[in-house]
Batch of 4 targets.
Target 1
Amino acid sequence: TISTEPFDRDVMSNQIFPRFSLSLLLSLLLSLCLSSSPAPRACIDRDTSGCELNDEVVLLQSHVKVSSQRSPIAELAGSWQPGTNPPTPTGLQVTRLQTAKPIWWLHVPKCGSSFVNALTHLPGMCPFMPPGFVIEDAPSLSVTEVEESTDQWCPGSFSLEGRSSIMSHAPLGGVYNKAVEGHGVVMLRQPEQRIISGYYNQLHDWPYWYYGRRAADLFEYAQVISGCAVRMFTRVGDDGNGGVTACGGPEPANAAEIALAKQRLRGGFAFVGITDEWDLSI
């Protein structure tokens, strides 16, 4: 899902960025999140001229390749027997959330830290959290305090396997099979926009330890940081507290890692959102 094509210097300098990556992410999101409620066939075909439903999501779904595999939610709905109460949309959502616990949030840098509040305020996730508490409103909390608060307020809801807290930017390569598969959630962002945000946030994830200096300009920063999400989906590492992060590693993402990242994103994540389409995602 992350573009690995070389950056064109003129495009970068003018900050004119292609939108094909966002379109790809939108299609991926919709194929994952909407496959349990497919639109009528007229809305699934490439030709949407005869589609009576003009809802934005349905029209976007018309360009999604619907998976032939039934989702767990579809299986649950299909197991309903006459004479029993049929599963309701709310009931299916509750079941899906319970199945996803404990959640492992892959926190890709600059993709929306406030997503943590959407997670903690899901019904039943953090029953002991003070009413109205918002994590971003408490910047004085250290990583340790956030971790301890998570354990106290949200017992059993989040997995801290391979990370210091739910807010950390730890990659999942070392814990995917053990803790992430089936429990992953992630927000992704149009890659060039994510890179620009990181550049203006004190060169977020720039590997000072390797270069021994700051990035010369946005173009050099982009060349090094490009492929951040792919690395986080595939590589082993820590939270980056020592300055070394999977996102900012100097070794570029390769074709095998890209293929593995796509496989894990499609097969192991209970939720995939897009920062650029926040309202649609959340």
Target 2
Amino acid sequence: MAGRMEPVRNKENQNNDVENQSNDFVYKTGIPTLRSSAHRVKYSPKHRHVNDNQGCCLPHLLCQPLLLDYDVKKYDFQNVLLQVLEECKTQTIGHCSSSSLKRLEDWKVPPQSVTRKHHGGTCEDSQAYLSEQLATSTEFLFLFDNFVENVVLSHLKEQLLSLRSDGEPMVKHTTFYYQRPPTLRLQPGPARAHVKMHNDAQYGHQDGEVNFWLPLTDRTLTKVDLHLEQEDGICTPMQVAVGQVLQFHGTRVNHYVNSNVTPYTRISMDFRIGVEGCFDPHWAMVGTSADHSRRKVQI
């Protein structure tokens, strides 16, 4: 089930939730998340070059923020990912602080895992380790593939079919290129750092990609949301609940994630899907290094 977003206006500065709380921070470095993929940018912005082969614009319908509901019992990412995390090295990825009713919100990330090497941390090694654990989890990948193909891609195909003109023949198959595995992000708190405002074109992503953002923890506990910039320049929190996935055009839409000042951990996963006719699987921005593998699927 899909529904248009009705964003809640928020004119406050993205850093206002951390004022007067500096003494309470457990995580004091500038890195907000431990993620399962390395940064894809090799050079500074002035050394990245856009060429004429970066795909073409998506249909307007696919660029609009939209919520999809899914069955959390059928696609139980929370429990499957909790198992993946618990099989990881505690000193690298962390542990669940609750011994009875285990939940992702109670996951504790070691502070050194969100601290750069040159500051005495292990962030880069921890990212590589988490990436490997996710990429080799057959149970998780099986669940993810089913979710993408049966929920997300079927929805995208319906959107594309709805754009057909009267009398226009139906296209039998559409090719999609989806990121696999997705990026898993763990944002522990309380912390000062936030995911800064950006768009994905700055990191080598194409216009022909659609973003999907799926929270795995309760936003009422973590107080963390993905914020999208609207046409009037105001950023709004999307307020996506567990059991929902947000579709948006991250390549061009500026977005950020606010600081997590709570004692809980915010966990989410996200991925991008390239659409046939708009996405070039062979293109890459000069000065970037792709760190996402993709699966080609026809529907």
Target 3
Amino acid sequence: MHGMALVYKRGLPAILEQPGSAIGIPGVALMWVAVLPALLLEVLPKALRYDTVKLVHLLAPVGYLLTLVHIAAQLSLQVKLRVLVLVVLTAMGLLGWLATRWLVVRGTKTVKVVSAKVISDASGQHVALEMLAPWMSLVAGQWVRLHVPSAGMVGHPFTAFAGREKGVVCVCIKAQGKFTRKLLDADLQDATVRLEGPYGASPVLPALRWSQAILFVAGGVGVTPALSLLPLASVSGHKCYLYWSVRSQKLFEYA
């Protein structure tokens, strides 16, 4: 609204003559472009791929930076308290984003795939990965973001559970999208991938304080959270029930 009012008052040619003012136009445009995919997915959930949305969203901090330069340029022309406060608040927001990205990069580490299996039958195909990540403190019910450069440019989130051996983190993925189908063709045995996380909190731990029994209802590969939550609940002495609708005999045997 501020930009539209300024264009109406001064005219676009006058604004373009001042680099500090003109740089705000692409800044706002980039921020709008970055959020449009998310708005589109609210109406058409399958219109865009996950990778596309994540990559386009990276335009937002670039637009934010250009907008900050625009506001700082206005401050150099006329020192006003409200403009100074706006510069400080905008800079703090950008620094907060950079700090978040630094924490994400710091928490993303390279791991070795010690087992890569394809579970395939008439009901579909699944990829079961076991990765050696002794540094990861995984709590039942948490998820990780898996980065496989040969399959995609961005990481994808999957529920993780502890393997039978200490320090092993497992994911079981149904091949139904472009990224997950590329995992079927990738030779991941003994390969190195990157894991980010873990994220989330266990939904079972709060329930253990007041419930007498825990009921799990799952369908297909959606049983993966229960693979770690069931042992946690059963050890506490609670009665546990699992209702699992599954068509794949091989997936049933894997679990």
Target 4
Amino acid sequence: SNVAASPCQYDALRNVSIPARRLGKSFKMIPVMLWGMVLARKPYSSGDWLIAVLVTGGVTKFLLSGEMAPHYESVSTVGGLIMLLCFLALGGFTSAFQEAVFVAHETSKYNQMLYINLGSSVLSLVTLLLSGSYVTALEFCWKHPALLQDVIFLSVASVGAQCFIYGQVKENGALVLAVTMNIRQVISALLSSAMDDMAISLVQVLALLVVVGSLLYKSLQILAENHEGNKEEGIPFFVEDCNETMGKPAVGASLVRFKSQD
């Protein structure tokens, strides 16, 4: 799925308009949730779906509104749109399946990085050999040696990004990664607008408020659920005076500690 998603993404970059690409990339949460239901049978409440719709809609509205909206005509081919849909489906499957592997086998992120990238390299090499493009690719690199430098830079950046991506999938899940990708798009658009002196419209501000409000609500909900879980396990946290906690005198100090089941 990792190898198949790459040509879909590159083809979409060539044959899909900027608004369509922005719109498609904003819908990453939905495929991840659908694949999570299929692969891990994860239950999602109506509130989870509502938050996903609000975040997706808010990011989409922000990216396609105001001065950030493209002011020129660009055409999306049917094949390019199909490749974009395939990229979203494969990308959602990859993240959801990685999360399932973390849970089922308790592997580390470095194991997944190693074996997935090794497998991807072998599959890419076999694909080039079977398609007869291997020699053509080498000839292209020979004629354009500057490409190798760009490839090295991209490879280093990709490895660095994978450390964070795999870590986030392991610790927080594929859905949180999809949310992070949406937030990244918003931050990238804000930086671009600041560099190009583009004003942010009222509609975009409202869209950002919808996104931030939805994510803040979900974060508070998770914190509340974790707090309730700690109570059921007998480990609520609360503030007590150091004298009572440590059995020693302290001057004007208090601390937060975890109370054990004892």
